[in-house]
Amino acid sequence: MMTLEDFQNDIRAGIPDTLPEPMPYDTSVNHAPKRKDILTPEQKKLALRNALRYFPKHLHAALAPEFAEELRQYGRIYMYRYRPRYEMKARPLAEYPHRSEQAAAIMLMIQNNLDPKVAQHPHELIIYGGNGAIFQNWAQYRLVMKYLSEMTDEQTLVMYSGHPLGLFPSHKNAPRVVVTNGMVIPNYSKQDDYERMNALGVSQYGQMTAGSYMYIGSQGIVHGTTITVLNAARRVMHDAKRHATNPIPLFVSSGLGGMSGAQPKAGNIAGVVSVVAEINPKAAQKCHKLGWIDEMHDNLDELMPAIRKAIEQKRVVSMAYVGNVVDLWERLAREDIEVNLGSDQTSLHNPFAGGYYPVGLSFEESKRMMADNPQQFRQAVQASLRRQVAAINKLSARGMYFFDYGNAFLLQSSRAGADILRPDGKFRYPSYVQDIMGPMFFDYGFGPFRWVCTSCDPADLEETDRIALQALQEERSHAPEDIQHQLDDNIHWIREAGKNHLVIGSQARILYADCEGRTQIALGFNKAIREGRLKAPVVLGRDHHDVSGTDSPFRETSNIYDGSQYCADMAIQNVIGDSFRGATWVSIHNGGGVGWGEVVNGGFGMVIDGSEQADNNIREMLFWDVNNGIARRSWARNSGSMDAIRREMDRTQTLRVTMPNLVDDSIIDQAFGTEQ
Known about the structure:
The protein is of the alpha/beta class.
């Protein structure tokens, strides 16, 4: 058993000067699939040379064949030998060796990300989404933790795609860490470019909350999915064309592994019958063990009557189908079962390297084919998507409301030649952002605000829940009508959060709040720290599907229609603005929920410690972090954002935002005459 002193010494040691004993390959842990063999012989030598530069010369002869074998066997050099021997989990701040309390908080966040209960493939440093990585290898982890243990409040750690470039002199008001992930030249941002650069050890796909050290397990995804399902169910159950028989909505989706089991938990909270397919038995079992799934099924002949019975009894229940999602969709299309809500939440931002498994192949057969015959695997994936879309189209014709969850399902289906496009070339189905999250939440500044109690004490989390509830209730008392519904849903969420047992890993919470809500909640936390009602600092952050931090035409900015949905100015401006307004760390990524090359994402973390400076940081940074996005959405002529930013200008006299002038359609039509 490792003592606290041993743990601290191990952190301080960084990369040891002597060769540690090999770590056994743990088969009980969910591992990443073998990655595509994409490097030339010369490039493989370069990958090995790149890996060995972390280690002193006297270790090269011993490590070189080992790392070369990892590259052959797994498609990446993970440096398993250097995986820590201590338990990987978030610890109270005092247990981390540190000179900066802010640095200790970042260490907590990193270890929480890599907690096996939180991370999807913890030993490959993949946090979620199939390839969302926090680091590329264990040497990077060790070196980062060492740097953080030494850092003062007048230094900044610079991170290049998981690689710690070094500690640089700065000042106490500068960010303690600046993170970039996958920021490659745009012409080199195709999927194979990622595979090649990642195999070389020079770039990585950081997702957002993975590469930003801000993942809190599936709770974050649960909330977004809950809000989406709640509002989708309201649409459907009040629409006679879409709802005919079911006394309770039936929701069907997929991808328990990449989504960490969020869908079934969200389904239970939203009050529906949910059926979620997952091809990886270990991922499904993990979710079931954590209590995020009520029932496990691997036989469709048994599953169909179970669905009917649950609907008939109006019993809120979550079911996992351990098998291929296409088989599930095709069977539902043949059955006389009314499916009210449908989505796909497989990790299709990573379609050919473990994010999606084609019908007709077992899980193990798929893993072998994607490594040994990637072209054949690509063809199998695309054929599978065509079948999946055909089944979804049949159910949609019978009234099912299908929405894309922003994981590139529509995009990859179109690239596969599936029947997913309308005659005008647009997608048959909306993104969840287009129909629900964008116009109802993002346009008004509501997004996934989250926090972590660094005491690791559940009592502190309970106190933050109370503070957040009080702040939202106060905002609700004077809120305009167009945001009351959003506030009501989140008041219900935070009131029930403790009962729903959402915590996995660190003592963390998430809710959707606008600028006023986020600010008042955070100021309430800071006051509680100052008064001793909270025992330790709190880390503030957010997810990527938010109002301001992410530009993605297939997700976060899919409800922007002025042509700028492909422009990434907002995300870049967001990070730059956060960095000089009080963020403890900032991050910018090529990638987010929809994949490498399809999105630019900005994130932050902020440590609040009860100080007056923290109060100032909260007011300045959270204001910018939200209103940057509202202003951009307002300029795109989104009506909700135009209203929201006008209200903010009324409240904040120093805010001046350029507003759009709306033009009548007839003026535009007349200008072009008969040209159209």
